[in-house]
Design goal:
Radius of gyration of chain A: 46 Å
Strand content of chain B: 15-25%
Order of helices and strands of chain B: HEHHHHHEEEHEEEEHH
Family (chain A): Belongs to the mitochondrion-specific ribosomal protein mL40 family.
Number of helices of chain B: 9
Helix content of chain B: 40-55%
CATH class of the largest domain in chain B: Alpha Beta
Oligomer: heterodimer
Structural class of chain A: mainly alpha
Shape of chain A: flat
CATH superfamily of the largest domain in chain B: Nucleoside Triphosphate Pyrophosphohydrolase
Structural class of chain B: alpha+beta
Largest sheet of chain A: none
Subcellular location (chain A): Mitochondrion
Keywords (chain A): Coiled coil, Mitochondrion, Ribonucleoprotein, Ribosomal protein, Transit peptide
GO cellular component, one term (chain A): mitochondrial large ribosomal subunit
Number of strands of chain B: 8
CATH topology of the largest domain in chain B: Nucleoside Triphosphate Pyrophosphohydrolase
Strand content of chain A: under 5%
Main location (chain A): mitochondrion
Number of helices of chain A: 6
Chain lengths: 189, 263
């Protein structure tokens, strides 16, 4: 009995010892605040002023350049060409009346020819549209579902690239000779 | 105006109903056909009137033009040689050797141009009349026709095939082209809508399930490649034909339907 008591007393005594030696560090969810730097209000004002001036300067520069258009060099006739235009004119004998008459007739014939060509083109377009309408009508007769699928817009067609007919076909395996390249790109501010 | 519109719409409604009644009677097989065209590579040869007009235009342009630097230089050179001939100007020997006159330059340029050979507008396949090649008749549009077994006989038609369940007509057309002509041929289909229509009836003995076939044609333009013929199939011949030759080779009723949407 006395032994038991002694043991219990020992255990009672040992528990504060254990807590004294086992430490649990507290969790810190925040950092102590840094001391705020106090700025001189004069300095702050100066900085702001400087930023404002910079922006204003940029705006001014942009406005100034907005009125200055980039010149298209090709549109301006070089001065030396204007100066010696008289030297460059061809001295041809004026056309006779027969020649003028022939040209006028040719122009009239050409107008008729182009008109006929255009009419023929319109007829072809009409024919194609008619043919397509007929096909769509027939398709609708068979099935409304197929018709709806057929009149959907095909977005894959765009962008379309077409190579037009040329005067002579391309030469196969043609290696184009290297020329001299003069790079002339003016800078416009 | 409103009355007119309602009239038209009523007419259309009536028409639709009547056609629905008609289609319920006899069943037609749906086919998709593909019109593959090789667009012209070179421009058309000018006819006499066009040539005349072109000549006139170029002459007018010459009349209105001013002399170029090169022409001025040529004139200056001519004057100088004249002066030298007359002995009014002294010839500096070293200078003349180094100096090239405008005429010399012109001769050199024309010589260089002569060396350059433009590709001819007609090809070897034109001369051999090789109808399976797309590299011929460069001025015209070429259309692809294939020999197909329809019923018991072989016919020369635009590639066509029957629609399967669940396909749209455009999908059928794409599948048909792949089946008939192989994977090498690259084309661009012009939209989802058919451009033409043709129908024909089967012989009376074979009208068990459906009366005939309705073919919906799709337009496609050739980008590259050519038809690859499967050797196992007997019906493997194909031709690229311009419009005139096409009309001669096709069945008349078929050609009439096709012609409606050829350019």
């Amino acid at each position: 009995m006395s032994l038991l008591n002694a043991l219990s007393r020992l255990s009672l005594q040992s528990s504060p010892v254990a807590t004294r030696f086992l430490h649990i560090s507290p969790v810190l969810c925040a950092e102590p605040l840094k001391k705020k730097k106090k700025l001189d209000p004069q300095v702050v004002k100066q900085r702001e002023d400087r930023r404002k001036k910079k922006i204003e300067k940029q705006i001014r520069r942009l406005e100034k350049n907005a009125r200055q258009l980039k010149p298209v060099e090709e549109l301006e006739v070089p001065l030396d060409l204007i100066d010696n235009k008289a030297k460059r004119e061809r001295k041809l004998t004026p056309l006779g009346t027969a020649e003028l008459e022939q040209r006028a007739l040719l122009k009239k014939e050409w107008a008729r020819y182009k008109h006929d060509e255009k009419v023929a083109d319109f007829q072809i377009i009409d024919r194609l549209v008619q043919s397509q309408n007929k096909a769509l009508e027939e398709l609708r007769r068979e099935s409304e579902e197929l018709y709806q699928a057929a009149i959907e817009v095909d977005m894959k067609l765009l962008p379309v690239s077409v190579k037009g007919p040329v005067a002579t076909p391309p030469i196969k395996n043609y290696v184009s000779p290297d020329g001299d390249y003069v790079h002339q790109a003016m800078k416009w501010e | 105006m409103l009355r007119r519109l309602t009239q038209i719409s009523v007419q259309q409604l009536v028409r639709k109903k009547s056609t629905a009644a008609c289609s319920s009677k006899d069943k037609w097989d749906l086919f998709a056909g593909v019109l593959v065209e090789r667009l012209p590579v070179v421009s058309k040869t000018l006819n006499p009137l066009e040539q005349q007009f072109q000549a006139m235009l170029s002459h007018v342009e010459y009349e209105k033009s001013l002399k170029s630097d090169f022409e001025l230089k040529n004139e200056r050179d001519l004057v100088q040689t004249e002066l030298i001939k007359q002995g009014k100007m002294q010839v500096d020997l070293d200078d003349t050797v180094a100096k090239q006159t405008a005429q010399d330059l012109k001769d050199a340029y024309t010589e260089e141009l002569k060396k350059f050979q433009l590709a001819p507008r007609t090809t070897a396949d034109d001369a051999n009349n090789k109808a399976t090649s797309t590299d011929r008749c460069l001025e015209d549009i070429l259309y692809l026709v294939v020999k197909q077994k329809l019923g018991s006989q072989q016919h020369l038609v635009l590639p066509q095939g029957q629609r399967e369940q669940g396909e749209s007509m455009r999908q059928t057309a794409e599948r048909v082209l792949r089946e008939q002509c192989g994977n090498e041929i690259q084309v661009v289909f012009y939209g989802n809508a058919p451009v033409g229509f043709h129908k024909y009836k089967y012989p009376i003995k074979e009208r068990t399930q459906s009366v005939g076939a309705k073919v919906f044609f799709y337009r496609a333009s050739l980008r590259s490649g050519n038809v690859v013929v499967k050797r196992s199939e007997t019906s493997g011949t194909y031709e690229w034909l311009p419009k005139e030759a096409l009309n001669q080779k096709l069945n008349t009723a078929y050609a009439e339907s096709i012609n409606k949407f050829l350019i």
